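Class, carefully examine what follows:
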Amino acid sequence: MGAAVAGVLGFLFLAAAGSSAGDEAREAAAVRELLARLLGPGRAAAFSVSVERALAAESGLDTYRLSGGGAGARVRVVGSTGVAAAAGLHRYLRDFCGCHVAWSGSQLRLPEPLPAVPEELTEATPNRYRYYQNVCTHSYSFVWWDWARWEKELDWMALNGINLALAWSGQEAIWQRVYLALGLTQSEIDEYFTGPAFLAWGRMGNLHTWGGPLPRSWHLKQLYLQHRILDQMRSFGMTPVLPAFAGHVPKAITRVFPQVNVTQLGSWGHFNCSYSCSFLLAPEDPLFPIIGSLFLRELTKEFGTDHIYGADTFNEMQPPSSEPSYLASATASVYQAMVTVDPDAVWLLQGWLFQHQPQFWGPAQVSAVLGAVPRGRLLVLDLFAESQPVYIRTASFQGQPFIWCMLHNFGGNHGLFGALEAVNRGPAAARLFPNSTMVGTGMAPEGIGQNEVVYALMAELGWRKDPVADLEAWVTGFAARRYGVSHGNTEAAWRLLLRSVYNCSGEACSGHNRSPLVRRPSLKITTTVWYNRSDVFEAWRLLLTTTPSLATSPTFRYDLLDVTRQAAQELVSLYYGEARTAYLNKELVPLLRAAGILVYELLPSLDKVLASDSRFLLGSWLEQARAAAVSEAEAHFYEQNSRYQLTLWGPEGNILDYANKQLAGLVADYYTPRWRLFMEMLVESLVRGVPFQQHQFDQNAFQLEQTFVLSTQKYPSQPYGDTVDLAKKLFLRYYPRLVAGSL
């Protein structure tokens, strides 16, 4: 690593971590409070937690030390930061007590007495940073959260050793102050902001206006949340990444400043210019540094700063010129506006743009951006490194430090998916790359609350110098901790999932669910998958055999439902294939049979299984949105934002089903009516002897989709039915047919 990079990062570490006894005491207190929330005050008393910066004096890297435990002795956890102490605590609970902490719930049965640490265990992280989040996560997952949910997430982050994360809530309230100061009217500002469910893309300049305006109460609530989030992050010793000005401005700027030099960018995501084609301020325009510094000054006055800022000027947006001089100037002006306000500023850049449009970002263009910021002051997220790493083709980002990130999930989709082998080997390979400037690992999913095994592995890799030697052994250990007991059949099921759905490899791997279940039907949907479906069905069978002994485990019930959901998704593909083949062969009876089973048996059965768990309810999803409101009108507005995001995404299905979910209510009232209409039109086409009209179907399907989005139907937010019983019924109906080879 170059001296400049090492120097800047060393400075950053010291600045972020602090060194006073007060900081150490505050961070230790925060971890003790986390422990009490996790285990309860009584059980938490069996642990001694302290923070001592001196523990990392030699390496400067987060370090923890475990000791004690056993009969009558407290377990002693010491960390160089609060995050390091929390990670050490998690390591003890995981490896010594067989416990498990996850989004879907935790398994925290502690042995009595607490196991002793045989000999003092000291562990240092191999890199400076463990990063978390994607700009999109704030819209796909966090958008409607209250403080109680945020607190749980921050605890999860600390336990998983995260020490660098976005803190982007409340920024629109700050922008509103800046725009008013510049002379824009309130109505111009209201017209500019997107609705809550689409703010991520407003922040990156992809969209404006769509789904808006933002109510005044929204700004107040987000300011409150941001203060609490920042306070908690800092109390753990995490470094929050604040937003900065990337160059995008409201069109109304041209009214206030008629001479301003702006360029209108192209459209994004099939939206027309009513909602996209954002205005980009020319880097040389005198307004650029004024707006950039006004925003950052107002932001840091409100929230303080930890000196790292995120900004994305050309995320999925083609720059107006490919000239290196232009790209360098555009990049330099963003950075210059930062350092004008904060001389210690470091810019965190999502490296997605380089791999998303590789035909535009050739060597000269990439060099122009990377070279426009002093070395060590640009921290690049290699966002999709498990599949399409950029560091390899840019000579380790030409000396700029980077974080190896696993993106994994798109749109917050459900669907079992992972590239665990690539994830396992990727970080170590990046460290060994010639002249590597890798300074951390990261998790950057667009949406969370799915495929928890993938995130458990990635979080663990943030503290490992080498890959896990035996992933099969690792995954069986994961299953035992998750359910609180070792069971041969659950472990066999997880080994099957590891070699199938979690074994995607190559550039084609994408955590975006394109199953026929969640797509607008056509005769051209691809149903091929990278794994053997029989492995999923066998894993399903094995999990069901363990229900007599594991049915009381909440994490087991969640996984049983998730694998049942996946099996139903596979069955939808198979019955769709049967129906399509029958139609193309002009065989009416087989078409009617496959269509009838799919529409009137399989999809309703799936909806019933999903309805048995609160985490798979459309009602819970929409209730979260409504709960964020202060009036009925606002609740309706937020609910519609949420419905749009799940389905049409834009007014005309612009990014249709990108954020698809498998939720009870959504399957029954959105996916099923589409499939019913499709099958009816196929049958009618066959009976009348006329070609199937896809265009006509699309128009009719859009009417159904829009009806769902605009509906005010209430959905249950409490689960109904027994997951195990419903999963068994589904299994007994379809598994024998699969074995017999006759759907």
In short: The chain has 29 helices and 15 strands. The CA atoms of residues 359 and 647 lie 30 Å apart. The first helix runs from residue 3 to 17. Confidence is low (pLDDT under 50) at residues 1-5, 10-18.
